[in-house]
């Protein structure tokens, strides 16, 4: 039975008419910080996903969509060769009536449509089973793209995980204090400043050629994996907007940052937000079962540290956005980004305390 939905309004109607689809209504999808997303209810039972691309964040939407088309086409071939279902196991961009990858509306907004992947769901909170499966999904994603021609991808957000540059931008945010909020978060500001020395460690390895650039997802959160409702097996990785050249360490570290947290990303009660070493182990086991053979020894060695760096970087971005006046991340209340930052910094401290154990776990999995 179809869910309750809103009738198509004039704005969405003008977008939908550019596509060879019919829709009788829509359901807003509120997960995610960046784009506006709607499930379109088809009058023939076939549903679609409509998204308004946030061009403040992604100011080159043409290149973004080109990346998505190239990567999903590559994945589709791999999935088909393995006997899988490409229409279900990777995103499918629906072409417009004039065979374009997106619609540019009269108000200069950009919209795209995907096929809706039915009978799947995503999760915001992890457990060891889910997180191991998530590791398998992202490990396979990395393995399947290990032979992708990296020079054909655009940098849709240049320096996205360039932590030294993120640090410089953060210092500018603190100096400018556009929102006037700096004095409300001095402890958190000092937390970031005290760890400046960790910022260049991965960026330096890349620039020195000691670890390779790869196709990376760059937003490897648990809730970007769709699971089959019946089998609980991972089906498809979504949210490919930040797919671009990067380090596998960014993907691994960011996945652990989000999924090995026992609380929500914006948990107000910090006692509920803790780094779980068991969840870290589960993800590592799943990821390495699919990707270990494609990784270099240096990449494997740096995996535990990558979790600290990506958590620190994310917290720094939340805090910088808070000080800037919440320009980047969508917020639900005035201190939302500050709450997010506090959670990340609590996790950083706990990861630092568990670093030796994390190294032992990775070694045990990769060198049995």
Describe the protein in words.
By secondary structure, this protein is α+β, with helices and mostly antiparallel strands. Helices cover 44% and strands 12% of the residues. It is built from twelve helices and eleven strands. The chain has helices spanning 10-16, 61-81, 86-89, 128-144, 163-176, 186-193, 201-207, 248-259, 277-291, 297-324, 336-353, 355-366; strands at residues 6-7, 23-29, 36-42, 48-53, 103-104, 110-115, 120-121, 214-216, 225-228, 234-237, 244-246. The strands form three sheets. A six-stranded antiparallel beta sheet has the order 1-2-3-4-6-5, with no helix packed on it. A three-stranded antiparallel beta sheet has the order 7-9-10, with helices on one face. It has a two-stranded antiparallel ribbon with strand order 8-11. A hairpin with a 5-residue loop joins strand 5 and strand 6. It is globular and about 55 Å long. The termini are far apart. The mean pLDDT is 94.
Topology diagram in text:
Elements: E1 6-7, H1 10-16, E2 23-29, E3 36-42, E4 48-53, H2 61-81, H3 86-89, E5 103-104, E6 110-115, E7 120-121, H4 128-144, H5 163-176, H6 186-193, H7 201-207, E8 214-216, E9 225-228, E10 234-237, E11 244-246, H8 248-259, H9 277-291, H10 297-324, H11 336-353, H12 355-366
Antiparallel strand pairs: 1-2, 2-3, 3-4, 4-6, 5-6, 7-9, 8-11, 9-10
Structural class: alpha+beta
How many helices in DSSP terms? 12
Mean pLDDT: 94
Q: Tally of extended strands?
A: 11
Report the major sheet: 6 strands, antiparallel
Distance between the termini: 50 Å
Instruction: Please give the radius of gyration in angstroms.
Output: 20 Å
Given as residue ranges, the uncertain stretches (5+ residues, pLDDT < 50) are: none
Query: Which term fits the overall shape?
Result: globular
Order of neighbouring strands in the sheet with most strands: 1-2-3-4-6-5
Sheet-strand content, in percent, reads 5-15%
Order of helices and strands: EHEEEHHEEEHHHHEEEEHHHHH
Percentage of helical residues? 40-55%
């Amino acid at each position: 039975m179809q869910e309750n939905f809103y009738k198509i309004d004039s704005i969405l109607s003008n977008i939908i008419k550019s596509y060879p689809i019919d829709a009788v209504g829509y359901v807003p999808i509120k997960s995610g910080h960046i784009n506006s997303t709607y499930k379109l209810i088809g009058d023939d039972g076939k549903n679609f996903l409509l998204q308004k691309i946030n061009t403040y964040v992604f100011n080159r939407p043409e290149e973004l969509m080109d990346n998505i088309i190239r990567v999903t086409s590559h994945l589709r071939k791999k999935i088909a060769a393995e006997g899988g279902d490409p229409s279900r196991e990777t995103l499918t961009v629906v072409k417009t009536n004039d065979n374009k990858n997106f619609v540019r509306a009269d108000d200069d907004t950009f919209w795209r449509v995907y096929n809706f992947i039915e009978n799947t769901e995503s999760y915001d909170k992890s457990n060891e089973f889910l997180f191991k499966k998530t590791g398998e999904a992202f490990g396979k994603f990395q393995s399947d793209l290990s032979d992708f021609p990296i020079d054909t991808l655009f940098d849709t957000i240049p320096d996205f995980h360039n932590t030294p540059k993120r640090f410089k931008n953060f210092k500018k945010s603190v100096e400018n204090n556009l929102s006037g909020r700096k004095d409300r978060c001095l402890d958190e500001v000092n937390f970031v400043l005290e760890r400046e020395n960790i910022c260049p460690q991965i960026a330096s390895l890349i620039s020195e050629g000691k670890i390779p650039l790869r196709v990376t997802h760059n937003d490897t959160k648990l809730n970007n994996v769709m699971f089959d409702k019946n089998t609980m097996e991972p089906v498809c990785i979504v949210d490919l907007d930040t797919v671009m050249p990067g380090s596998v360490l960014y993907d691994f570290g960011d996945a652990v940052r989000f999924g090995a947290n026992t609380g929500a990303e914006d948990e107000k009660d910090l006692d509920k937000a803790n780094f779980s070493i068991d969840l870290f182990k589960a993800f590592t086991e799943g990821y390495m079962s699919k990707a270990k053979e494609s990784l270099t020894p240096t990449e494997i060695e740096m995996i535990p540290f990558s979790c600290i760096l990506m958590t620190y970087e994310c917290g720094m971005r939340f805090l910088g956005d808070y000080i800037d006046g919440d320009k980047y991340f969508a917020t639900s209340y005035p201190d939302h980004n500050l709450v997010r930052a506090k959670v990340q910094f609590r996790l950083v401290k706990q990861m630092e305390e568990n670093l030796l154990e994390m190294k032992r776990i990775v070694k045990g999995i990769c060198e049995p």
